[in-house]
Model the fold of this input.
Amino acid sequence: GKTFQWHGVDFKYWPADGKSDHLVRGLAAQRGASWHEYDRLSRSVLYPQQAGESYIESHVGSGRRKDLRRCMRRLTEIGPVTWTFQGGGSFDEGSVDRFLELEQAGWKGEQRDALASDGRDEQFFREMVRGFAGAGRALFCELRVGERVVSSTSNFISGRAGFAFKIGWHPDFAKMSPGILTEVELIRQAPSLLGQLDFVDSGAAQGSYLDELWGGRRLVSKAILATSSMGRATLGALDIGRQLKGRLFGGTPSTKPVGAV
Done:
C-alpha cells in the first residue's frame, strides 16, 4: 500500500545529475509521495582517467604551481619527501592512528571538531575504516618528510565512485601547504591508482581549496521527500515562509524550490 510510518526524509546532498534522481522522482509519484528540491549546488570532482601531470598544468594556475613548487623545495630542505598511497587488499592500521593525530593537531582539534575530540566519533570512524578496508575500499594518502608524516587524507570507495572524506596535517608545516601537496600528488598518480573509478567526489563545499585543484563538477541538491499529508502540508508552509521572507527583506530567499514531483 501507500501508507508510510514517517512524514518525510530530508536529503542534504542528493546526486541531482544521475539515474538515482530520475528513479526517486518516479517512485515518489508512484507511491503518492512528493519530492521537493529546495536548493542545488555544484561540487568539485576528479575524473581519474583525465588526471595526471598535464591535468595539473591545465587546471592549476601557473602562479599556484610556482607557489607549490616553492613549498615542496622548503620541505625537501628539511628532509626527503615521499608520498604513499594505501588501498586495496593491503592496509596498515597505523595509518588510521596517524590520520587521527594529524587532524587533532590542527585547528579542528582546537575547536573540538576533530574526530578524536569525541570518543564516539573516533570509534565510528575506526569501525568504518575497518569495514571499508576489509572490502579493499579504504584509501589513505600520506606525505612524509623523512620518517615523519606531515599530511594524511582519508577516502572511501562505493561502487565505481570515490569519496574524499577528511584531511589532516601537522600545523608545524602549515606554511608549506602539506595538505594541498598531498592532493596534487593524488591528481598526478590518479590515472594509474584510481583509473578503475568513474570519478572521485570531493564532498567539499563550494569555494573550498579543492575547487581550484579539481576541475570537474557534479550537481547535488538538497531535497525533501514528503510521504504523508502532514509532510506535504509542512512543505507548503515552508514555501510560504520563504516567499514572505523574500517580500519582507527585499530579495529572493537564499534557498528556494528548483523542482518538485
Q: What stands out?
A: Residues 251-261 have pLDDT under 50 and may be disordered. The two ends are 19 Å apart (CA to CA).
